[in-house]
Structures
1.
Amino acid sequence: MRRMKLYAEKLPNPKYIPKPYKPASFPGEKVQIEFDSLADFKRQLARRNRICNAFPMRPLGWDSPNECLEKFRLSVT
């Protein structure tokens, strides 16, 4: 095949197609929040903080931040 100069044709790389926006699926992931007013933003932020602070985290020994805070308060008093 080399004598006849027949080589395998190299195909071009496929064009990059970006993935569509995906909302956050776990705490700590960056999130895009849409809000109408400051009061609406405060309400959404409070809801998100309630969810995130009840989620167990590995650095805290698989306790949630709320549980760690409660353990700390009990150990101090």
2.
Amino acid sequence: MIDIVIDNAMEGIQSGLLNLPKPFLSSAQGMACNQSWNAYAYFYAKEFEEIAENALKLRRVQHAGPLLFLARQSIELAMKNAINEFEPKIGSDAGKYGHDLKKLWRTLIDLMRFASFSADCEWTQHCEQVVDHIDAFDNKGERFRYPADRAGDYFEYPDVDIDGLVKAHWNLTAYCDAVIECLHAQRII
């Protein structure tokens, strides 16, 4: 058995898989446009959609943890992106809210009301219920990233309706995009 492991390792070395001839990470010059809340929100949303589509096709529910993490991160970035769109007018800084989805949501709704947007529609209420649902399951943003909390207590592995997760993700990210569109249309920013 050990001979097989050694042979496989040697094949990896010979094929270059185990060699790192040069660093694979470096600062990208001229990519400042990718360093924005908008870009990150977009990139994470698109990656979530692609991976979720694949998981639905292949019925890979065992990948629920990473998919939930990616969805939650994408939703968080979408909210922070929308909050930051208010910045030129009132100086908001979404980065200071950490990973607290409920706090981000309340801030977004407060900013919408400040801008005289209605936040009392059925879609807003639906999205708030989705935020509450996610928060009830993972209020610190760690349950979907780690198998255990900081004290070492293991989380129960989630049973995920991937189709429901995709719809929840779409609603929240589309809502945040709609807020931004309204801000631009009203020329509030």
